[in-house]
Design goal:
It comes from Sphingorhabdus rigui. This protein is 9% helix and 35% strand. With 401 residues, it is mainly β. The protein has one domain. Helix 2 links the parallel strand 1 and strand 2.
Length: 401
């Protein structure tokens, strides 16, 4: 066989074993946008970019993506808008179930369910997105704005979420997480890390929510034992929106006016934040106080460290049972930091902030706060070794540069 023929055969073989060259699939708003956009997400192959033009995409149903290594990008969160006001079903706006996906530069408005959800999607990037319920805080809004769950390597960068009836930015049952440079406004929970391992939440703004930043661990889930969470460099102020979560949701119990709330997690660090103008308290550390049957679940928080935060006013209107009475006994104001005291001295948080801090002295995790024996918490003289920073894979960082 001559050399020219050998080269032809070799090229044909490579075409069979190598994926097709990456391409851009352009989609514009207008008539048939629902079908054309969903068809683009189905037709995309690994490496492809689905590029959304500027304009308002009026959609009647949710969208889904299950192809690995796809980028979905618009022209910016103020000009490329996926409008779900006419959505017929109750599901999320966009559901992603594939790995190595990048979502950036578009908005999702008024989805009936969650705004953007990813499940089992490793190495996912949310960048410069806006998710908003434009009618303001209503119990009928979708539960979550940005909602990755059951994933490894989650990067949420420069997103804006408003109006979620549960959590604006939520990461659940995941590990290796970074939430940064983002803004959460008028949600029940601004930012929530739940049942997750190894998370950095930094340089965000959480304001006008019911609770600014929540770190929870709940029972009866496949992944429990949340730990190694750092909350730092954030502005967490004026979280005074009355709780509008539907009854029965766990966040329906978050008191209006909560800055940071840690529940049943371990190894949580809260430092270098600006926290204030929160009517209940700036930082709350509590156990899970509801009935549960899971013998593997630990309801108590432990190894919580708090230092170098800048506090302003807090505690003038505590919104939990017994809080008003305790505040009155302390001169009319609840302290900037409090711990429920359940579990005893071995669970005492390390506090170095120079503000009033209180232990409620609960003898039993299920006790009523009105039965507690409050006592001041002394400032610690040392703190544990710092947790390591969370590092994202370089390909994820490169995707947003």
């Amino acid at each position: 066989m001559r050399i020219r023929e050998l080269l032809f055969v070799g090229a044909a073989f490579c075409a069979l074993v190598q994926p097709a060259s990456a391409k851009t699939i352009a989609v514009s708003p207008g008539e048939g946008a629902q079908e054309r956009l969903q068809e683009a997400l189905i037709a995309a192959e690994p490496g492809d970019v689905v590029e959304l033009a500027a304009g308002r995409f009026k959609l009647s149903d949710g969208l889904s993506l299950d192809v690995n290594k796809v980028t979905v990008k618009g022209q910016g969160g103020s000009v490329t808008i996926l409008d779900f006001s006419g959505q017929q079903g109750a599901g999320e706006g966009l559901l992603v179930t594939s790995d190595d996906v990048v979502l950036k530069d578009f908005a999702v408005e008024n989805s009936k369910g969650d705004g953007i959800k990813s499940k089992g999607a490793d190495r996912i990037v949310y960048h410069k997105l806006r998710v908003e319920w434009t009618g303001g805080p209503l119990a009928t809004n979708g539960a979550y704005g940005i909602y990755p769950v059951e994933s490894k390597d989650v990067l949420i960068d420069s997103v804006f979420v408003r109006g979620a009836s549960d959590a604006g930015i939520y990461v659940g049952q995941s590990r290796n997480i970074v939430v940064r440079h983002s803004t959460a406004v008028e949600n029940v929970a601004g930012i929530e890390i739940e049942n997750s391992f190894d998370a950095d939440v930094h340089d965000n703004i959480a304001t006008r929510n019911t609770g600014g930043v929540l770190v929870f661990d709940l029972p009866n889930l496949p992944q429990m034992g949340g730990h190694n969470v750092r909350i730092f460099g954030n502005i967490i102020v004026n979280n005074m929106t009355p709780n509008f979560a539907p009854k029965g949701n766990i966040v329906a119990n978050v008191p209006t006016g909560t800055g940071v709330m840690v529940m049943a997690n371990r190894r949580v660090e809260i430092f270098d934040n600006v926290i204030g103008e929160n009517g209940t308290t700036n930082i709350m550390i509590v156990g899970y106080r509801f009935p549960f049957q899971d013998p593997k679940y630990d309801p108590l928080p432990r190894e919580v460290s708090i230092w170098d935060n800048q506090h302003s006013r807090a505690g003038w209107d505590p919104k939990f049972r017994g809080g008003t009475e305790i505040a009155a006994a302390m001169g009319g104001s609840f302290p900037a930091i409090f711990w429920d005291g359940a579990g005893g001295s071995e669970y005492t948080p390390v506090i170095q902030d120079d503000v009033p801090a209180l232990s409620l002295g609960l003898k039993d995790i299920a006790a009523d706060t009105a039965m507690a024996q409050p006592a001041p918490l002394a400032r610690a003289t040392s703190r544990p070794a710092r947790l390591p920073a969370i590092i994202m894979p370089e390909a994820m960082e490169a995707a947003i540069r």
